[in-house]
C-alpha cells in the first residue's frame, strides 16, 4: 500500500481525489463558508435574516456592473465580486422572495438605458467617453423603486446595512412617521456668518432614508396622532403649550428621542450671537425631566481627561487634548441595550450630565457615560475658549461617572398635574413611558462623526464614528423596528491600535508636564529680569550687569536641559511603539513556523512510540 501511495500512480490518484472533492463541495455545498473574523463581518446578521424571512411579496433586484469598462480596475472588481456574492446570499436566504438579475450595461445597449432610467450613477473613466455603472436597483409588486446609485469603496463596511435597508424599504413601503422639532439648522439653510447656503446634516439625510420626517413648529400645541416617534433636537424655544403637548404625547404611549445641550456649538441663532453667553446656546425640557425623574443642569458641561479628543492646532503644531470633546469607547457604552450594543465609537462635544433622581419610579438606564476621570465645569468657560488645553489648567476629577445619554421607561406622572388653563383635562400618569435622552446636540453635526466628499455631484459620506448610527438605531428601536439594528455598525475593517494610543496618551501627559515646567521657568526668569533691569533697552547685552548675564545664562542652560528632556520623552514614545511593533513582527513571523514544527515533531514522536509498542 505504501509503495502505491508513493508511486506516480498514487500521486495521480490523490490529485484526482482532490479535484473531485472540490467539485463535489462546489455542487453540494455551494454556499458553505467559514467566517473566522472576530465580528463576523462576512456573515449575514440575524437582523438581515429576519428581514428576508418576513418577506411576503417578491422583490426584484437589478445589479448593474460594467464588466468591460472595469477590466483594469482590480480593486473595484474584487469589491464587485463581494457585492455579487452577498446579493446571491440574500437571494438564497429569501426562499424565492428575491429575484436577482445581474446585468452588464454595455455602451449604447438597452441595459445601459435601463440603468439610467433607474437613476443609477455612471462614473466617467476616460476622455473617450467610457463610463462605469456599479449600483443596485430594486422594485416591488407595487412598482416602487429604491436604488443604491453607486457602491463606493469607502463605504464597504456599510454594505450589508445598505442592502438590508433597500430590501426592508421595498418590503414595507410605508415608512414610520417621525415628528421633528429642532432649534438647529439640521435641514440646511443659510449660514448667518458666511451668508452661504448649507447642506442638510448627513444624520438627517440618513434618517429620511428610513423614516418619513414631518417638521413641527416649536410652538405646536398638540402632537399629530400619526406621529410614532417625536424627535427633539436642541428644544430651547418650546412654549409651555408645546411642553404640555410633549408631556401628553409621551403619556399616551408616544415615543420620544430628545437631544438637549448645555452648550450647543452649532447654535448660530440670533439669540446666541447677541447674548454671547453660554445660556444662549443651552436647551432644556424643564418640568418634563423632573417629572421623569431626571436631574439636568443646563449650565454645566462634562469634561473628561481620559476620553478627551486630540484636535489639531494647525500646521507645525502638535495636537491638543480637548477634554470637553469626548470619544466614548465601548467600555463606556451600554452593551446590553439594543440601541447602543452595536456601536463602537461615539463623539460628544460639550455635552451635559443626566442624573437619576433618587426615589423616582421611572427606570433610568445609562446608555453612554464618562469615565471616573471627569468633572463638571461651567458652560461659560467655552464661550471664548481659544486653546483647548486651557481646560486642563486647574482640572481636578471628582471621581464621578456622568451619564451622557439614557433610556427612561416605566411609570411616570405628568409634569402638568393640573393640566393647562383653557384645555381639556389631560392624562395625569402612565404605566410605561419610552423616552431616550441625549445630553448633547453637536454630536449630530457632520464634523463630529462623518467626512463628506463630493463625487461627480453626488455627496458621499464616510463615517468615522457611530453618531449617525445612534440616531437611526434609537428611532428604529422606538418605532418598533429592531431588525436593522443588528445590521448597522457591524464592525470596521480597520481596527484601532489601542495599545499604541495608550502609549501616546502617557507620553503626551509627560510631554505636557515638561512643557508646563518650561513655561513656569520662562515666567519666573522674565520676572527676575524685570527686577534686575536697570536700563530702558534690555537688548544691549553689553550694558547688562554680571548678575543679569548670569541669570540669563542660567535660564538658557535650563532651557536646553528641558528641551533635552522633551526630546527624551518623544524618543521614549517612539521607542515604546517600535518595541511593540518588533514584538508583533516576531510573533507573526515565528509563531506559525514554530507551531508547525512542534506539530510535526509531536506526530513523529507519536508514530515512533506506536512502532515501538
From TrEMBL:
Q: Where is the signal peptide?
A: none
Residues forming the ABC-type uncharacterised transport system domain are 175-474
* Domain of life according to the entry: Bacteria
Pfam families tied to this protein: ABC_transp_aux, DUF7088
Tell me the ranges covered by the DUF7088 domain, including all copies: 38-138
- Keywords in alphabetical order: Membrane, Transmembrane, Transmembrane helix
Q: Which InterPro entries does UniProt cross-reference here?
A: ABC_transp_unknown (IPR019196), DUF7088 (IPR055396)
The membrane-spanning stretches of this chain are 586-606
Q: What is this protein called?
A: ABC transporter
Q: Which organism is it from?
A: Halopseudomonas pachastrellae
Amino acid at each position: 500500500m505504501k509503495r502505491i501511495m508513493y508511486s506516480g500512480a498514487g500521486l495521480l490518484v490523490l490529485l484526482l481525489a482532490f479535484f473531485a472533492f472540490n467539485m463535489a463541495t462546489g455542487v453540494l455545498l455551494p454556499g458553505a463558508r467559514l467566517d473566522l473574523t472576530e465580528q463576523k463581518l462576512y456573515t449575514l446578521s440575524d437582523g438581515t435574516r429576519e428581514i428576508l424571512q418576513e418577506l411576503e411579496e417578491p422583490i426584484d433586484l437589478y445589479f448593474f456592473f460594467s464588466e468591460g469598462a472595469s477590466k483594469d480596475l482590480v480593486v473595484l472588481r474584487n469589491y464587485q465580486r463581494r457585492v455579487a456574492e452577498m446579493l446571491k446570499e440574500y437571494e438564497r436566504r429569501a426562499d424565492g422572495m428575491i429575484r436577482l438579475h445581474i446585468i452588464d450595461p454595455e455602451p449604447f445597449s438597452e441595459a445601459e438605458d435601463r440603468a439610467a432610467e433607474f437613476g443609477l450613477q455612471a462614473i466617467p473613466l476616460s476622455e473617450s467617453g467610457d463610463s462605469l455603472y456599479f449600483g443596485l436597483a430594486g422594485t416591488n409588486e407595487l412598482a416602487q423603486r429604491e436604488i443604491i446609485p453607486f457602491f463606493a469603496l469607502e463605504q464597504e463596511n456599510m454594505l450589508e446595512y445598505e442592502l438590508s435597508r433597500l430590501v426592508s424599504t421595498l418590503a414595507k413601503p410605508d415608512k414610520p412617521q417621525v415628528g421633528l422639532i429642532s432649534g438647529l439648522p439640521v435641514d440646511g439653510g443659510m449660514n448667518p456668518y458666511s451668508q452661504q447656503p448649507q447642506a442638510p446634516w448627513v444624520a438627517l439625510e440618513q434618517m429620511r432614508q428610513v423614516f418619513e420626517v414631518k417638521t413641527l413648529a416649536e410652538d405646536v400645541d398638540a402632537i399629530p396622532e400619526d406621529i410614532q416617534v417625536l424627535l427633539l433636537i436642541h428644544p430651547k424655544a418650546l412654549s409651555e403649550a408645546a411642553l404640555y403637548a410633549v408631556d401628553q404625547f409621551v403619556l399616551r404611549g408616544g415615543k420620544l428621542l430628545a437631544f438637549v445641550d448645555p452648550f450647543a456649538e452649532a447654535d448660530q441663532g440670533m439669540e446666541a450671537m447677541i447674548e454671547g453667553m453660554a445660556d444662549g446656546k443651552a436647551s432644556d425640557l424643564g418640568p418634563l425631566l423632573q417629572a421623569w425623574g431626571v436631574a439636568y443642569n443646563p449650565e454645566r458641561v462634562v469634561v473628561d481627561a481620559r476620553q478627551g479628543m486630540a484636535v489639531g492646532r494647525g500646521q507645525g503644531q502638535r495636537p491638543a487634548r480637548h477634554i470637553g470633546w469626548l470619544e466614548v469607547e465601548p467600555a463606556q457604552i451600554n452593551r446590553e441595550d439594543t440601541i447602543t450594543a452595536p456601536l463602537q465609537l461615539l463623539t460628544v462635544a460639550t455635552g451635559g450630565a443626566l442624573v437619576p433622581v433618587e426615589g423616582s419610579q421611572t427606570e433610568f438606564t445609562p446608555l453612554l457615560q464618562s469615565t471616573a476621570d471627569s468633572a463638571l465645569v461651567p458652560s461659560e468657560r467655552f464661550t471664548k475658549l481659544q486653546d483647548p488645553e486651557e481646560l486642563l489648567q486647574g482640572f481636578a476629577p471628582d471621581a464621578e461617572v456622568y451619564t451622557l445619554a439614557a433610556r427612561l421607561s416605566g411609570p411616570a406622572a405628568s409634569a402638568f398635574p393640573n393640566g393647562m388653563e383653557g384645555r381639556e383635562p389631560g392624562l395625569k400618569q402612565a404605566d410605561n413611558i419610552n423616552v431616550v435622552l441625549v445630553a448633547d446636540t453637536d454630536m449630530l453635526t457632520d464634523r463630529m462623526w462623518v467626512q463628506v466628499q463630493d463625487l461627480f455631484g453626488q455627496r458621499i459620506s464616510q463615517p468615522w464614528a457611530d453618531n449617525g448610527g445612534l440616531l437611526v438605531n434609537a428611532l428604529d428601536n422606538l418605532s418598533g423596528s429592531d431588525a436593522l439594528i443588528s445590521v448597522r455598525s457591524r464592525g470596521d475593517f480597520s481596527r484601532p491600535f489601542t495599545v499604541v494610543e495608550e502609549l501616546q496618551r502617557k507620553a503626551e501627559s509627560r510631554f505636557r508636564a515638561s512643557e508646563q515646567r518650561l513655561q513656569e521657568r520662562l515666567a519666573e526668569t522674565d520676572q527676575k529680569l524685570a527686577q534686575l533691569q536697570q536700563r530702558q533697552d534690555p537688548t544691549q547685552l553689553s550694558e547688562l550687569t554680571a548678575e543679569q548675564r548670569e541669570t540669563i545664562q542660567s535660564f538658557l542652560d535650563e532651557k536646553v536641559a528641558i528641551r533635552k528632556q522633551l526630546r527624551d520623552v518623544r524618543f521614549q514614545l517612539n521607542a515604546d511603539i517600535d518595541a511593540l511593533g518588533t514584538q508583533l513582527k516576531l510573533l507573526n513571523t515565528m509563531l506559525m513556523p514554530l507551531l508547525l514544527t512542534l506539530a510535526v515533531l509531536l506526530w513523529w514522536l507519536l508514530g515512533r512510540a506506536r512502532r515501538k509498542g
